[in-house]
Design a protein that fits this description.
The protein is of the alpha/beta class and 163 residues long. Strands 1, 3, 4, 8 and 9 form a 5-stranded mixed beta sheet that branches. Strands 2-5 form a two-stranded antiparallel sheet. The protein has a two-stranded antiparallel ribbon with strand order 6-7. The protein starts with a helix and ends with a strand.
Length: 163
């Protein structure tokens, strides 16, 4: 019979697989972070906010926060809280002509935090944008911050998940 360190050190039965599970999760999460996820972004139906050259204009997080009529900070997932995982999650969004998020796509971030960020982004609403007198859809980058501390001075409560 092989020597079992969990039995030798009196680890309760329910906890014997915990360290291996956590180690496996950390390895999978680390591998997942090495390659950004980027599928085909949702396509706008109808007119799109564009610059002088005709290229789509992408709003950054601060511009999105300023034009939001409703924003929701992501929730810190319980397992991420227990593992004390912190970090940034970037979600690209497409906002329709009425100001609703039509599409939210993970660009990068820790897999344990990503789902919460994407779900929060889907609940945001914005003042509709107009160009040449017509309502237009627009793209944006929402960067969420997951922290085990509080909100940093100057950071919007809409983009910070903390405990």
């Amino acid at each position: 019979m092989a020597w079992n360190s969990t039995r030798a050190f009196g680890v309760p039965d329910g906890m014997r697989s915990f360290p291996r599970s956590v180690a496996l999760l950390v390895v999978v999460a680390t591998l997942s972070l090495s390659t950004p996820i980027r599928a085909e972004l949702c396509k706008a139906e109808g007119p799109l906010l564009t610059g002088k050259t005709g290229a789509a204009i992408w709003l950054d997080t601060s511009d999105l926060v300023k034009s939001a009529t409703h924003c929701l900070a992501p929730r810190m997932p319980a397992l991420a809280r227990q593992a004390r995982i912190e970090g940034q999650v970037l979600v690209d969004i497409l906002v329709d002509q009425q100001g609703n998020v039509a599409c939210a796509q993970l660009i990068y971030g820790h897999p344990m935090l990503a789902g919460s960020a994407v779900e929060a982004a889907k609940d945001w609403t914005f003042r509709p944008k107009k160009q040449k007198g017509h309502a237009v859809s627009f793209y944006g980058h929402l960067r969420f911050h997951f922290s085990t501390g509080g909100i940093v001075k100057g950071e919007s409560a809409c983009i910070v998940a903390h405990w």
